[in-house]
Amino acid sequence: MRVVLAEDSVLLREGLAGLLERFGHTVAAAVGDAPALTAAVAEHEPDIVVTDVRMPPGFTDEGLRAAFALRAVRPGLPVLILSQYVQQAYVAEIMGPGVGYLLKDRIGHVREFADAVGRVAAGGTVVDPEVVRQLLAHRRDPLRRLTPREREVLALVAEGRSNAAVARSLVVTEAAVAKHIANIFAKLDLPPAGDDHRRVLAVLAYLRG
Fold first, then answer.
1. How far is residue 82 CA from its own chain's centroid?
2. What is the mean pLDDT of residues 127-131?
3. Full-model pTM
4. What is the CA radius of gyration of the chain?
5. What percent of the chain has pLDDT over 70?
6. Which of 9, 143, 201, 207 has the most CB atoms less than 10 A away?
7. Using CA of residue 137, residue 85, residue 16, residue 36, what is the dihedral sign?
8. Confidence of residue 90 (pLDDT cuts 50, 70, 90)
9. Among the listed residues 205, 104, 109, 118, the one whose alpha carbon sits nearest the alpha carbon of residue 161
């Protein structure tokens, strides 16, 4: 895939570029601020944008705003957002098909990061496990209806994992995972959702509520 990367830290930017290329992607541009990100996407028409939230000049949410301005012009442009800290307000604003939100610590989990890039580029939704944990913590009371295993499954589903991936993580069968998910959705009064990103959005909508 062709990737445009935006990260103001030179060391992290170079490291990310090398990591993406290691997994066979082409880094068409690696830039350090939001205006350069906008220009690079217009020039290279990437398959995915990987961007930090905070970048020059204000170090607030320039990268995020630039990415979603680009999606307004080019609907469906996959965007993987990187953040130093959990910022739950962004989850409500940004999550949808072809969007991922990861903490920078997740980059150290090389395979997980590479998988996230692929899932977002394919139109999936990816949420960092720490964000999921914090959202779960804020909805503790309703989640008491879930068994410990169902809570484990819920956290993995909210990260954007398929039934097969959940089964591998928990070392159970896919049939068992499907049964747990059906029970979770019933207990939380969530409508059934067919594909992975709709399941993630349904869970996130519940956790944010």
1. 9
2. 82
3. 0.75
4. 17
5. 85
6. 207
7. positive
8. low
9. 118
